[in-house]
Amino acid sequence: MSMAIAACGSQSHRRGALAVLDAASQSLPAGVRACVGEPQGSVEVLDPRLLRYVDPGERFQRIATGFEWSEGPVWDRAAEALLFSDVPSNVVYRWSQRFGLEVALRPSGFAAATARGREPGSNGLAIDAQGRLLLCEHGDRRLGRIERDGRHVTLVDRFDGNRLHSPNDLAIHSSGAVFFTDPPYGLPHGMKDAGRELPHCGVYVALPRDGSAFEVRLLDAGLSRPNGIALSPDERRLYVAVSEGASPRIVAYEVDRDLAVSPARTFFDARHLQREGNQGSTDGLKVAQDGTLFATGPGGVLVIGADGVHLGTLRTGEATANCAFAADGMLYVTADTHLLRIRTHELGAGL
Is 59 exposed, middle or buried (0-12, 13-18, 19+ CB in 10 A)? Predict the structure, then answer.
């Protein structure tokens, strides 16, 4: 399935994953605006290894605000810009130093005109080796992709003949396979929704086959709310954040050469951080080249060594959804109604 989509940006010299869509300008919604870098938050150091990545005196800069719930950031190297979702608003935004804040894609996750629940738009975003944008689309209950000619196509929307709940986040393997999570957050009534077709919330892998077809395999049906997902740099370990009420945690799987996984084990238990009154839950995550995790959770962005040791927290002061490494040396963070960034060392290397 493909559909026509609207995007913004009348500049014909745009580059990147959505450059082909830059045909019709769209104004920013009321209340959404770029900021001038207002400082907020702080850096909490628990282990000196954190200082490899961020100075203790750094603070976040607020660079845009007014969103309903910002999510799914990804750095677009070709465009030198950040793409991110506003899930309730059904929009993908683009922010760059050169052009500022723009509407890049609308609709982003639900094409119909009638409303669908509180979270109809795209959530997690990724850019593949061909420079194409992949989207977890809540309302349309699928993994979608923007082709180089601008077509918006369905990659995966079913498992075993049944419709997915609402794909939430994704990680692309070097083979082209896509690992993704499928909690019920995009269904209007969650797990009680009458349109739900699967009995479980799954962790899946979509394996590319001939042409544009994918074979979808269920890796784990035992997590109640699988959320953020990421691969280790050597692709031998898969991490999944579980945003389960009173039991926020990150689990890990060992990945074999056939992309099957071992049983999940708890890698990091965040319950103590939640009990201490920190805002938010385990959500999105990214993995640095040395295996260090940057995982949103209670308090902000939790920095966790590959050995599972909590190195410190980049405290945002907000419920924090996800983060992205960028070639400009910044860590970009989607935090509730804001887009934030903080200066780092080494995280942009190789992007």
Answer: middle
